[in-house]
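Before a colleague's protein record goes any further, I have to sign it off. What it holds is a sequence and that sequence's fold in token form. Would you go through it and say whether the fold makes sense for this chain? The record follows directly below this note.
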Amino acid sequence: MLERLELEAFLTLAEELHFGRTAERLHVTTGRISQTIKKLERHIGAPLFDRTNRSVGLTPIGHRLQEDLRPAYEQIQAGLTRAIDSARPAPSGLRIGYVGAIAGQVVYQAHHLFRSREPGCRVQMREVQLIEAVARLRNGEVDILVVHLPIAGPDLITGPVIICESRMLAISTDHPLARRTSVTMEDLVDVPLGRVAGVGPGDWPSDRWPDRTPQGRAIPKGPEVETFLEAQQLIGAGTCGAIVGAHVTRFNTRPDITYVPFSDAPQIDWAPVWLKSNNTPANRAFARTALEVAQRVYVAATH
């Protein structure tokens, strides 16, 4: 029978392939990890890792053991989390913030299902603008923020991805690119990109308003905006363009704006996010509910 440290040390080292990082994650010394792995290898009767001065890699037996143990370990962890959550008092309230129409639709649909499961929990929902979203989360105005990823911050927990959607260029209908069936990231050299005022790469993903194309060419900077409605006015007037998610073709159509899909850009992911200091059962339960709702209703509609 494996001891807990043996199991966690093996699975963590199999993921990190680095003794130092494994020790940091498990809050023990590197020597303790090395001793534990050696003990496990003696128990197995074969090496689980190939070690050199420069690298660590799994042996074939190690690969097989990882494949066998990982699902069981994750199931045990999930079971413990559910048991702990069930033992705690029901939450009295939950405040949900969301950015954009697609996130709002998921939140309101999930709210009804969540309330049926947690009737004693009062849920408040509010739309927040991108310029203020993370600040509202960090200052405690909302418990969960449903928003597009990624968000940087060691103080944040990102829940399950609930929506994946294609990336599109919002451009004036009079712009030459509006006549294209698709665009590439290199086409952005001809498009000043609008950006959210006061939000920098450290606060939000720079891939929504990149400075350069994948080939290193400069992308013109467009005006700063505070709301999507403001951005639409500028886009329609031909002042700038914007990188947006495909849901805008359902929620934000206008005769003066054309949405052209990118052929070479990654999708945009959406997820619930909350503070590590506020990692409550209610937050995790709502995140699971949002995923359930989104998988059933919205995934097919966002591609």
Observations:
- The longest strand covers residues 268-275.
